[in-house]
Amino acid sequence: MTIEDMSSSPWAPLSDANFNRTIIDRGINLADLACLPISTGWFGKKEENRRLIKVQCYSLQGTANFYMRPIEGLTVLLDLDTKKVVHISDMGRDIPIPKSENTDYRYSKLNNKYSKVRLMKPISIEQPKGPSFEIEDGHLVKWVNWEFHLKPDPRAGVIISRAMVRDPDTGELRNVMYKGMTSELFVPYMDPTDAWYFKTYMDAGEYGFGLQAMPLDPLNDCPRNAYYMDGVFPAADGVPYVRSNMICVFESYAGDIGWRHAESPITGMGIREVRPKVTLVVRMAASVANYDYIVDWEFQTDGLIRIKVGLSGILMVKGTPYVNMNQVPEEEKLYGTLLSENVIGVIHDHYVTFYLDMDVDGPNNSFVKVNLVREETSPGESPRRSYLKANRHVAKTEKDAQIKFKLYDPSELHVINPSKLTRVGNPVGYKVVPAGTAASMLDPKDPPQMRGAFTNNQVWVTPYNRSEQWAGGLFVYQSHGEDTLAVWSEKNRPIENKDIVLWYTLGFHHVPCQEDFPIMPTVSSSFDLKPVNFYESNPILNMPPNFEEDLPVCRAAASA
Amino acid sequence: MTIEDMSSSPWAPLSDANFNRTIIDRGINLADLACLPISTGWFGKKEENRRLIKVQCYSLQGTANFYMRPIEGLTVLLDLDTKKVVHISDMGRDIPIPKSENTDYRYSKLNNKYSKVRLMKPISIEQPKGPSFEIEDGHLVKWVNWEFHLKPDPRAGVIISRAMVRDPDTGELRNVMYKGMTSELFVPYMDPTDAWYFKTYMDAGEYGFGLQAMPLDPLNDCPRNAYYMDGVFPAADGVPYVRSNMICVFESYAGDIGWRHAESPITGMGIREVRPKVTLVVRMAASVANYDYIVDWEFQTDGLIRIKVGLSGILMVKGTPYVNMNQVPEEEKLYGTLLSENVIGVIHDHYVTFYLDMDVDGPNNSFVKVNLVREETSPGESPRRSYLKANRHVAKTEKDAQIKFKLYDPSELHVINPSKLTRVGNPVGYKVVPAGTAASMLDPKDPPQMRGAFTNNQVWVTPYNRSEQWAGGLFVYQSHGEDTLAVWSEKNRPIENKDIVLWYTLGFHHVPCQEDFPIMPTVSSSFDLKPVNFYESNPILNMPPNFEEDLPVCRAAASA
């Protein structure tokens, strides 16, 4: 879909008299209508050979947060090219439109309300001598021990490429990752009814994760010390346009500790050595209609890359006749949580799949599963009966590297360079430190799951292939799941000592709660790419601590 | 053990001529000796009826980091009361003591070395108008919407009690947690040989997690804007002593986002509303000999409490004759990773078990498992074949609430107040959001695991009982596992609508890597206590954004 497709489709139903009549019959002024273009997905039928889209509408009356005022049950199927109405499903006329009260979230509409919590005094991250990074040629970021190329992309949002880290012993720049990006998202809602079953979004391939990234708010999306980068994308007619302040880059210091040791009262040596932890963050926030995804690539001086996804924005909610749980019959299926009168937050999952072309000290790498297993001792061997042992297994082909995490069969997952050993003979590597491990539990034969089959495993490894970058396929809109990561991986190609791509899916199950109404506090999850025997020793051993005399001198703002 | 036990035991072997002889025979000057008191654990034998301790030694020659220079295989068993040697196990004489080079971590020993990475410019968190919290009577912390009591404790380290949060709608203070603390730790090493099998530490009950918490470094352990609190503890003779700056309290701002929404190009409404995220952190760092544990209790304005444990400090390592992996025979068991010449980092686990006496809007609460299960649709019901459904199950007795996490049987775990419903009829509650879910895989019949049986599950719920606060038992040293959480929970007492205690274990498997040598970059994990239908709606909806005119005015320090 182009931006033009997305922004014109919602208005198309207004050319249909039946549509206008049902809107007016439901007591809604046509001028208060806000409608959304919803990707249709694919549901196992032979589809007509044309581009289709569904449109659902909301009432804007009394609030900017129309998402909380669904016109439930009304779904218009449009031809995406002609913008003609193909079908109107007109159900749910008995479901009231939820009230507008308490749904607006704009500060200008709220700030005269009495707040019963005490206010916070100003706080900020300050760097009066400026940032420690430079950006060369507009895209090459250099910070402490890191160098990488940063690019806004209409589909992936942010692309990090040629990430290299300087070795503290040799001073050399060493390759870590050739390219890293958000490859695809899969967001299935858990409601099989007429107006909801098709909500199984793939936000990168269908809507464009970068196309939906809006300008960042300079004092709130990123701290005051941030640098901003614009995106330049082609419109549908080929003319370039600028998306200003789409990405920010900043140094973060949260008061965390890089490393520390104090000698305890046991030895009484009086040693206390502590190093503060400062990181470099690259951030983008994509607003795919209601939802806001905050994507951070965080670089640490110890060589670690943390990839974090925050979910905020507004829920996609469903209208209901109920105003209290005590009205809901035992057998009734809500498919979610009653969040407010007549508003249900429908259960859904979020899967964000990352493409990580790792090049640890060069392109040819191997993927190693280090399995932790219980070993029982022989009788008389030890007063202990058991201990854990680490068994290394080098994955030979793709199927060896289709990983579903199991808590009671734990393993570390390493990408190593088998041709490069440390001084004492360990292969240099990086490991994936998982989190956000929610796994898709849909029926694998369910059409949405066939399209989102790249979430069948949490980790996959494929040999580099320039046509395999988008986990849901190159063309995702109305796709049938014939060109996904799951299909490619079934080829079971060799991956040992090859240029390999690691795929990681960060997963969230979201059972909404009232705190998510009318706008959601951010929920975050992250995974790490962490050096494992990549360095000869702790690479931040030589970093200095903070000294009082180096820190800035600040005063309260004149206005305060 | 008292601090006096711990600090006197390491010197006791010097009164034994055989001990001194083997030290000298190994080429070590007695003046260079550093020894550690190591809890003996219990290994299923009928023990002598006396207090015992083991002592192992290291060479301090050429480094303050003696931990990297083990005198491998030499273990002295002492009577802890008389300090007399009971037995000396004198093995490993053929294992060289690792070199001292590159092991020291003190800045004063490093700062004249050429650093090949570029330096960082000063960065700090600034609050020129001061913090937004007050501490009344030395212990009652009041910050934005939170109030809680904070106490240093010799065994638990930090105790948070009577944590209450102000409701933005009513202005009332609402109870969340009556008491929260680190109850016990369990740190089994995974090496069954003579000098290692007994390393199965329980750091709170054996060493005193608070007793090991040393004064924090004001500019590096906590940011510049921190407030410090002292601990006052009794010495063995009953005389109180002060542990200064044991706990810090500070506001943190990392550049994160509390909530946001921008209207996308789809609707083109030009809305962008973002709120920065500032949190309050309570921190302690315990140095249990080599290891440093950083424990954070982080309070958020949205009602969330994040409990985070960071691991840093120094590994407990093992001497080995090998200097390179190419010397290690295929069948040889290293029990860990070769980190440097003659140094093995032994695999181990860390389990940190928290006692959380939740009082959500009052003492009587219930524990609810919200299981997410796949529901298949009936033929013809929907174009979808499957969706996820949330099934609620209220735990009646303790065994209903013994939880081992499973990724493919996911559930949310709620502590609710069944007597208090929201406006639309949901029970008010808090949920546990797990992370750091490594589970103990030792044989449940292994004596260390019997003592550490509180790690048999990741979550337990017990009815409040004042004698059940220490998960490993009131008396842990040389205990036989007869008084653990696992034993209490087997009583299977009713827990529905009772004053209940939630127990959560944060687990880490640690397979050391070279980056951990000679001192470890911090590894952190955290879990959350998060409001779930506790508030009627987003409690931070009314928080203001940052405005430029409120932020501080800073300049570089004069010296810089």
The share of residues in extended strands of chain A comes to: 35-45%
Task: Give the CATH class of the largest domain in chain A.
Answer: Mainly Beta
Largest sheet of chain A: 19 strands, antiparallel
Oligomer: homodimer
Percentage of helical residues of chain A?
under 10%
Task: Please name the CATH topology of the largest domain in chain A.
Answer: Beta-galactosidase, Chain A, domain 5
Q: Mind telling me the C-alpha Rg of chain A?
A: 26 Å
How many beta-strand elements of chain A? 30
| Largest Cβ-defined interface | A-B, 207 and 207 residues
Please, how many domains of chain A?
2
* Alpha-beta content class of chain A: mainly beta
Mean pLDDT of chain A: 95
CATH superfamily of the largest domain in chain A: Copper amine oxidase, catalytic domain
The appropriate CATH architecture of the largest domain in chain A is Distorted Sandwich
First-last Cα distance of chain A: 48 Å
What would you call the shape of chain A? globular
